[in-house]
Specification:
Length: 134
């Protein structure tokens, strides 16, 4: 359980750090965010702060303990964001898409260890209940 918790928090912390680092410039409509999303990718300017707020809410959801259904939705939304960004970068022919493998790998590792951690907690609770019932 201890190794699983350590791996979970390392991967989740790094993933949250990367996503938060990309959310803040979007929320603030920083010129770099506008350049990348509006000028290069062609998304409307109003979409930039919207996606930033969505990423921020997703990061909060995966870091706050409890709320497993909200966490599932947050992971899904963050994955969709990363996959959409990767596809968008590929579509305009930029070679930067390779750098998207790091956040996608961290997201995958965080999600896998989130489920391993939940399973271990459920198994521990189930075994404690079985001992009490016996």
């Amino acid at each position: 359980m201890k190794k699983t918790n350590i791996f979970y928090w390392v991967f989740t912390g790094l993933f949250a750090f990367l996503m938060l680092g990309s959310a803040i410039p979007d929320i603030m409509s920083h010129p770099v965010a506008i350049q990348g999303m509006h000028v290069e990718l062609g998304y409307p300017k109003f979409f930039v702060p919207f996606i930033g707020v969505a990423k921020l809410l997703g990061v909060i959801a995966i870091l706050v303990p409890g709320f497993p259904r909200i966490k599932e939705w947050a992971y899904a939304g963050l994955f969709f964001d990363l996959i959409g960004a990767t596809f968008s970068i590929l579509a305009i022919g930029k070679p930067d898409w390779m750098f998207m493998s790091l956040p996608l790998a961290l997201a995958t590792a965080s999600y896998v260890f989130y489920h391993k951690r939940r399973k271990l907690k459920e198994d521990r609770i189930y075994s404690q209940q079985a001992v009490v019932a016996f």
